């Protein structure tokens, strides 16, 4: 069963690679080259950590460290893009409404947004490959998540629409920073739940989950529904966007459950020890 799942997602990844290379080489879409650059960058980071880290024999540690790098760089780039656009539009009397107006999110592209989205596509392709090669997934959900993002992101990049919408979905990477930081910390052996560092980390982890992930994705979904009549009739943009956000919101529910369980385990070490002893 597991082998069949891996083969299916590897096949979809190969099809995706062929599609991207076709657009770059035969359709002369050189603006898509940052996808390749993103893949090479994160694969190179993987190689450096794997060869020079004391935990190089732990593929999960290497993968999570690269994921932390991606969430950090993506969060910084998204914040820069939003701040830059805010400054550009400060002459407007109603910056928020104009910045998040339908045509701004669907038709226009903020400076740097296209490249940032391409670069993240390269990461998700790298991460999908790394998880498949080293069998790092415990369930297909993370593979489905990456496939969903690759399909939605690349279709938007091919048609050059809804780029700004997709940039907003990546605000959730702010939460991913603390999600990956916790995993790296624990794999490095720092598990003292009474330390102030761990307590602050959990506050930031849970707060960013509610605000940057759940809140952001719910608001985007609401915005899509409210502006549904403004999308092109018969176009694929709205159905694809709603399908993608439905998938993200569902995955957020599962992630929230897992996060709550992890919090209870880490903050109640005596209960965890008792349960382990009883088992």
Automatic annotation (TrEMBL):
It is a multi-pass membrane protein. SMART domains: TLC. Residues 56-268 form the TLC domain. One of its GO terms (cellular component) is plasma membrane. The chain crosses the membrane at residues 7-26, 32-49, 61-87, 107-126, 133-157, 163-181, 202-220, 240-263. PANTHER family: CT120 PROTEIN, TLC DOMAIN-CONTAINING PROTEIN. This is TLC domain-containing protein 2.
């Amino acid at each position: 069963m597991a082998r069949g799942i891996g083969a299916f997602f590897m096949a979809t990844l190969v099809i995706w690679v062929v599609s991207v290379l076709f657009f770059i080489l035969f359709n002369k879409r050189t603006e898509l080259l940052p996808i390749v650059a993103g893949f090479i960058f994160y694969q190179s980071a993987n190689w450096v950590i794997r060869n020079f880290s004391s935990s190089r024999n732990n593929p999960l540690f290497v993968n999570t460290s690269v994921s932390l790098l991606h969430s950090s760089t993506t969060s910084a780039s998204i914040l820069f893009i939003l701040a830059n656009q805010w400054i550009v539009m400060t002459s407007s009397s109603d910056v928020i409404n104009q910045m998040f107006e339908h045509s701004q999110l669907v038709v226009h592209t903020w400076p740097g947004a296209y490249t940032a989205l391409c670069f993240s596509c390269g990461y998700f392709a790298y991460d999908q490959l790394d998880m498949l090669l080293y069998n790092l997934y415990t369930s297909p959900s993370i593979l489905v998540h990456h496939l969903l993002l690759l399909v939605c992101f690349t279709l938007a990049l091919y048609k050059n629409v809804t780029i700004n919408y997709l940039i907003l979905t990546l605000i959730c990477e702010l939460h991913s920073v603390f999600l990956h930081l916790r995993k790296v910390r624990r794999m490095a052996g720092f598990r003292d739940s009474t330390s102030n560092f761990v307590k602050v980390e959990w506050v930031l982890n849970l707060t960013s989950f509610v605000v940057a992930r759940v809140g952001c994705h719910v608001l985007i979904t609401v915005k899509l529904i409210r502006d549904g009549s403004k999308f092109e009739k018969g176009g694929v943009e709205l159905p694809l966007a709603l399908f993608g956000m439905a998938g993200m919101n569902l995955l957020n529910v599962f992630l929230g459950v897992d996060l709550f369980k992890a919090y209870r385990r880490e903050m109640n070490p005596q209960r965890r020890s008792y349960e382990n002893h009883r088992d």
